[in-house]
Amino acid sequence: MSQGRRKWMTQEDIPQAIAFAEQYPDVHSVDLILFDMNGMERGKRIPINMLPKVVENGLYMPASIFALDITGETVEETGLGFELGDGDRICRIVTNTLSLVPWKEGVAQAVLTMLDQDQTQGFFADPRHALRRQLNGLAEQELYPCVAVEFEFYLQDSELDSEGNPQPPLMPLSGKRMTQTQVYSLDELDEFRGFIDEVISVCETQNIPASNILAEYAPGQFEVNLHHNLDVMQACDQAMLMKRVVRAIAKKHGFEANFMAKPYSDYAGNGCHIHVSMQDRFGDNVFCQHEQMLKHAIGGVLAYMPETMAIIAPNANSYRRFQPNMFVSLWPNWGWDNRTVALRIPSGEAADTRLEHRLPGADCNPYLVVATILATIKEGLDNHIEPPLAVEGNAYELEGENFLPISWPQALERFEHSDVLKKRLTPEFCHVYHQSKHSEQVNFFSQVSPLEYQWYL
User: Fold this and answer.
1) CA 57: distance to chain centroid?
2) pLDDT for 132 beyond 60
3) Alpha helices in 141-180 (DSSP H)
4) End-to-end CA distance of the chain
5) Do residues 28 and 104 touch, judged by C-beta distance below 8 A?
6) Burial zone of 352 (CB within 10 Å; 0-12 exposed, 13-18 middle, 19+ buried)
7) Global confidence as pTM
8) Which domains does the chain have, with CATH numbers?
């Protein structure tokens, strides 16, 4: 198994870089992308003739990239800014991520990962390294997760409504404004066929396995399903690159693609559902073969779910999604083929037995969400944590006091005091993440909103 060992390009890969340039003579530059704590794209654009040199020697980027808040400001309390002299670290191109960018003429792209000073492992604050730690820990026990990522998003009109707010788009064929909920509508897929077909085509060009787009619960809402992948790091790379594709192709077709967790007050939010199964060294699904391992995995994820909420729901807007009857649970619960719970065990063949974590929003960082899911699964397996009883029926109608922390301050407080996450993700990583999000939270709540003028002026 190669699980968790997907590395970066080195001197041995220079012929591959040269061959890429020769294969695509019209390419003149390469976007080198580093995903920060918020899952936002950072990086540099280099001329194609520099690619072999970058493959051989790497590329310098400031470590403070992982101290940026959502506005792009460096949070000095993380210790990654002036305290380190705002110094650089070497970044390397991730293997098998070099591809064309069809919506940018003459441009290619590749994903970067930042290395520690000795250049033998990832930089501790790089979300990819946080995930790799979990993969390596499971591999030591000959356990190999298989992951699939599902993202929901809204297509919106490029023009705001009369009140200055985002609005559903005009349908390309009928010219009518979308106003109704038409979940799984084939008519909506027909209306947006040009956009959908181009997204699928570009994903194929970039080796992103996005073969399925469906109409979701609200006007203009869609879901993209990516294939299950035993290379978990690659699954997260593909999820991040898929969002980049959707945004770019939406803009090309005159729309805006919105991955906010809750773009509209009255409609369902955007989720990022994570499917996780687990294989042994023989390739057998241990959740299918050993029911107790499935139960302990569920027990671990549920036991520490409140402590992971600050990563599952990383922004102020994330918590507006947590409302009754909106397909997102308010409690750490689970059930068999039940979409009203936090952790669903989907129906299907026994060999496909898996967990579906339904709490993350589309604004999350998949590297970090999958890292925390795997960390708490391992905690459950190591300590034989038993789950509560499975929920049957509508979970929203059941009375329960064990609420999740569904406000940003509560979630950050639970994260800050989590011994399990410090153990699994390292205290240093948790410090950087908490300080960045705490600073962002303070700044957010210091702003006076238009609604306050409406209510209190």
Assistant:
1) 29
2) yes
3) none
4) 63
5) no
6) middle
7) 0.94
8) 11-119 (3.10.20.70), 139-425 (3.30.590.10)
